[in-house]
Amino acid sequence: MCGRVNFPGSAETAKRLGVNDNDTPKDGDINGFAFKDSYVFGLADRAPDTLRHFHWPLIPGWSNTYPSYQTHNARSEDMAERSAYKHLLGKRHCIIAINGFYEWERSREKTPWYFSMADESLMLLAGLWDYNTKLDAPVLSCTVITREPNQVVGEVHNRMPVILTRADADIWLDMQLPYHERAKVLQPIENSALLRVEIGKSINKAENKSGDWFNGPDEKPLSLF
C-alpha cells in the first residue's frame, strides 16, 4: 500500500507542474504519511491548471465523520464496488504529485526502500477526490489508486500506486473523455521509469524529518555462524 511519501512544498510543486497555486503556501514533507491531519498536493479534473491542497486520506462527501476504515488507497480492482469511491469514477479524478514513496520489504528484517522516478521528475499518482461539507469545515480530500505491482516494486511489496506519465495524467484528468477511456491509463508503469534504493531504518520513525535514511542502509550485523 502507498501510505508514506516524500513530497515538495506547494510552491515548488506548482512551479514544476507549470500551474498556479492560489492557496496559502504549505511546506512539503520528506516523511509524510496518511493520517487524520495529513495533506498532499496535486491537480483535480476541474480546473487542472490550479494546484490543489488535498487532505489525505479521503473523507467521502456523504460522511458526517472521519472514516473509521482506511481510505488512503483505493484498489483499482474493486473501487467501482466501494461506497467511498464508486460515485467518484468518471467524475472526480485527480493526480497527486510527490518526489517518491517508501515501502517495506516483506521479510523478517522489514527492509525499507525508496521509489522515485529515474529521470528525477515528479511522480504523478492517479487518485480520486471528494469534497465534504458535513464536518466542522469543508474538506477537499483524496485517495491514491493502487494496483498489482510491476517487477521493480513487486520484488519488495505486493501493491503499488498507479504512476502516470504526464500524457496519461492529462487523459486521467480529461473530463471530456468517457470513464472507460480514462481508465485505460491505470496500468503499471514501465520498470525502467522507476529507481529503487535501499535506505536506512531511521525512516521508521514517523517524527524523523532529517532525511538521514538517504545516507544508505544500516550495516547488517555479521553472523557468527
Order of helices and strands: EHEEEEEEEEEHEEHHE
Tell me the strand percentage band: 25-35%
How can the largest sheet be summarized? 8 strands, mixed
- Quaternary structure classification: single chain
Question: Structural class from helices and strands?
Answer: mainly beta
Descriptive report:
This protein has four helices and 13 strands. By secondary structure, it is mainly beta. The chain has a single domain, classed as hypothetical protein yedk fold (Alpha-Beta Complex). One of its GO terms (biological process) is proteolysis.
Strand and helix layout:
Layout (H helix, E strand, L loop, with lengths): L3 E4 L2 H8 L11 E5 L5 E6 L7 E4 L17 E3 L17 E6 L1 E5 L7 E6 L5 E10 L6 E9 L3 H4 L5 E2 L1 E2 L1 H8 L5 H4 L11 E5 L27
Parallel strand pairs: 5-10
Antiparallel strand pairs: 1-2, 1-7, 3-4, 3-6, 6-9, 7-8, 8-13, 9-10, 9-12, 10-11
In short:
The protein has 225 residues and is mostly beta strands. It has helices at 10-17, 151-154, 166-173, 179-182, and strands at 4-7, 29-33, 39-44, 52-55, 73-75, 93-98, 100-104, 112-117, 123-132, 139-147, 160-161, 163-164, 194-198.
